[in-house]
Amino acid sequence: MKLPTSFLVSVVVLAALAAHQWRDAVDWVFASFRAIDSDASEPYDPHDIGPFRGLLMDNDGYLHPDVEITPPSSTQERGLRTTAPLAKGTTVIEVPKKLMLTVSRLAQQSSLAAAVARDGDRMPLGPVTVVIAFLTYALSGGCRTGGRPSISSSTQRPPPSSAVPLVSPCERLKVWLKDLRALDTPAVPFTVEDGNETLLTTHLSRSPEGEWAATLRRGVLDSYNRVVSDTDRSLLGDSFLLESFFKSVALHSSRSFMVDGELVMIPVIDFLNDYGLARQNVLWEFIRDIDVMRVRATRDVAAGEELLGWYGPHSNAHLLTVYGYTSPPRHEMSWSCRIGTAERLAKFHPKWDRSWRTVPIELHAPANPHNITSPSADGVVLPPAPPPGTLPNTPPKEVIELSRLLHRKLIDETPMLTALEAWRGVWAIWEQTLTGIMANSQYEKDPQLTKAVKRVAKRRKRLEKSAGSTGEVDVSRRAVVWWGERDTDGKDATNMDTAAVNAMRVKMSEYLALLTYREAFRILQGKKTMDVSFTAEQWMAQQLHRALVQR
């Protein structure tokens, strides 16, 4: 028999009265149950800014009065725009920390989060599982059907009269949680929708990013099973399901911001879209002195203009796995490839010691290391280089550490080797290893990449032939323009679906990162003498030489 809500409230209130805490008990119970009856019946419009403005204003936040949600569109993601001009430096949004989903705050306010936090470090996803578990509960309707993970759990007593009453996150964030429930699952490769399963198993097969996404998916599954196994069902609720858990992981991954070294979800600011550095007009910053995330205009913004942030100089491989989308290749500001661990490298060359490193190694190379604003080989005007310091200016630390270990190993194994000869041996082993990884991933044999890879090879060969006559010419991006002459977004075949286009962009990002490093190692061995300045390969070779040999 299902007891009515009013009966349950009465029981809890009477229990609190017996403990002489009737005032706090009444406030506490109604705070826990207030969201239950109102949430399901209230109308909801995802393009109405009013409830979100109220969420901020009622909790000491701020939303500029001349900001609204963009109207519904079949071709554009929902975002924020202005209704009147904003001057540069104008504060647009302020969100206090009490509205952010953080591990420590949820562990204080939610019995479910507190239970998961006790084993957070043992979870494959780490402590962030605390946030994922609460979000899963909220997405599954727990906040509006029972509120059991809030402070109303039977495992906690009402706060004593001397304590400050805690507001249930279900109640405080009701508007935002309802909005998150209505969102589609972000199209990141590790989610469970059929389309993303196809993307992972078909389009990204043999891709290092696809392998990493598959590993992450297993980690998500293991974390879910551990939460369910270790947590009482009265805290989880009846609808704590794997599908919602995956959606929560994807939402957290794609809508989080860095605050004091922790990725946290922040309402309203997560509405901001990113269309590249060139279109950015707002910047978010966490003001630590007052625990507020503030968004300001970086330039004058016209009336009706969308407010756009910038997620950073990420590769398409990173964008797809973390945010669920990719950028047109001419706007991609870096390339990356997860090449694995030292144990995986040992599969491609016997000189690697499997015990050296277990941390995954990710190669990252700037697609635009210098100020290149001239048209490319296809007449496409390339974006200007980002401000200094926004792109990595050194190779990954794992590459440096492994190179030094390998250098020492070569000298120990062959006492007659000089330091310079040992370094050449290091470069040769890296070159052979990356060649093996490229062959294993079959980029150059992938039918989807055939035209793109041929374009890269053709233009590189053409630049080699013309280098002697042109002298030192800055052509670093021209050497790697792989997209079609008229179609600049990577859609070389007709009727390519979004999953196929995303996969193509990801694999070309990996291929170019591997190619850049492999050619840099060739340069360091003296194998390449192409007289063209500022190529990505030469730039990376300089960084490797500076970080290792000159140290």
TrEMBL record:
Q: Please state the span of the N-terminal signal peptide per the UniProt entry.
A: 1-18
Q: What is this protein called?
A: SET domain-containing protein
**Which stretches are annotated as coiled coil?**
none
The protein's matches in CDD domains, at most eight in alphabetical order, are given as: SET_LSMT
Which GO molecular function annotation, any one, does this entry have?
protein-lysine N-methyltransferase activity
Enumerate the UniProt keywords alphabetically. Answer: Signal
Q: Which organism is it from?
A: Vitrella brassicaformis (strain CCMP3155)
Highest taxon in the source lineage: Eukaryota
Q: Which PANTHER family match?
A: SET DOMAIN-CONTAINING PROTEIN (PTHR13271:SF140), UNCHARACTERIZED PUTATIVE METHYLTRANSFERASE (PTHR13271)
Recorded hits in InterPro entries, A to Z, give:
SET_dom, SET_dom_sf, SETD3_SETD6_MTase
Q: Which Gene3D superfamilies match?
A: set domain protein methyltransferase, domain 1
Pfam families (UniProt xref): SET (PF00856)
Signal among keywords = yes
Residues in SET domain copies: 65-312
